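Why should sequence recovery work at all? Because a backbone constrains its sequence more than one might expect. Tight turns favour small or flexible residues, buried strands favour hydrophobic ones, and helices have their own preferences. The token representation captures these environments compactly. In the example below, the structure is given first.
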């Protein structure tokens, strides 16, 4: 016990970015919650076990909601790898993690690098299918009739730029501002399904699902394109549509300044 404590105190720790993916169907989201199992909790437990560090903490680039997936999530942690190289650590973690969570890359970063606060861009995709597809169950939202994607793209262009997105934010969050800069927002057809891709410097809680749900109101003819503009301007969540189902949403990319990796 004493030798283990001395090793902990004397170990040389470095900060790392860990790149992972997960199917969020079985989880209450990324962040640890009192009412369910979180991806953060599973990943943190695996790292603590492999590196024999009970105090190790994992900090993610964002907080995906319950049922939301990630093709790429980034998290940082401080640790002494104890002689393991990146390939060795990833192999041990993947053997310990459940089948719906995987780690792909490990990169050393500056000691003050932060997976959440240093991100300069995030990209999400929302996937919908227009027919019953057993291979996409739980991985895409099903629409029962074809919406007008051209009108939805016309409305989506109104999202571009630096704006207050209160109308698409979950209420009573702890953020200081609801202003985000959206650089890309578009529906495209891909491999037999439709995908909405949106990129911004930051996102509010529930923002993408609320945007998609409101765009679908436009596509179904229940809201005009200029009505979508008025929703943005209103800064009122009650004016927007209902949130689209969680299973269609994926975090697909998080980008950082190059200088974070100059170590």
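From this structural description, the recovered sequence reads:
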């Amino acid at each position: 016990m004493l030798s283990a404590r001395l090793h902990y105190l004397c170990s040389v720790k470095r900060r790392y970015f860990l790149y992972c993916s997960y199917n969020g169907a079985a989880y209450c989201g990324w962040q640890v919650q009192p009412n369910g199992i979180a991806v953060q909790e599973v990943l943190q437990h695996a790292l603590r076990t492999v590196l024999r560090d009970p105090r190790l903490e994992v900090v993610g680039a964002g907080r995906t909601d319950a049922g939301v997936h990630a093709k790429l999530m980034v998290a940082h942690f401080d640790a002494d790898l104890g002689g393991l190289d990146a390939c060795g650590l990833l192999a041990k973690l993947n053997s310990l993690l459940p089948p719906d969570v995987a780690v792909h890359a490990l990169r050393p970063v500056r000691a003050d690098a932060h997976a959440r606060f240093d991100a300069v861009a995030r990209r999400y995709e929302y996937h919908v299918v227009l027919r019953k597809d057993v291979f996409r169950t739980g991985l895409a939202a099903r629409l029962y009739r074809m919406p007008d994607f051209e009108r939805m793209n016309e409305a989506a262009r109104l999202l571009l730029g630096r704006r207050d997105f209160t109308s698409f934010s979950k209420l009573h969050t702890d953020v200081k501002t609801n202003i985000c800069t959206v650089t890309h927002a578009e529906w495209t057809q891909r491999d037999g399904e439709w995908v909405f891709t949106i990129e911004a410097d930051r996102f509010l809680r529930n923002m993408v699902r609320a945007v998609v749900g409101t765009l679908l109101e436009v596509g179904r003819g229940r809201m005009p394109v200029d009505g979508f503009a008025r929703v943005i301007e209103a800064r009122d969540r009650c004016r927007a549509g209902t949130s689209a189902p969680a299973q269609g949403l994926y975090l697909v990319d998080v980008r950082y300044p190059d200088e974070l990796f100059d170590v």
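A few observations help interpret the result. The longest helix spans residues 39-51.
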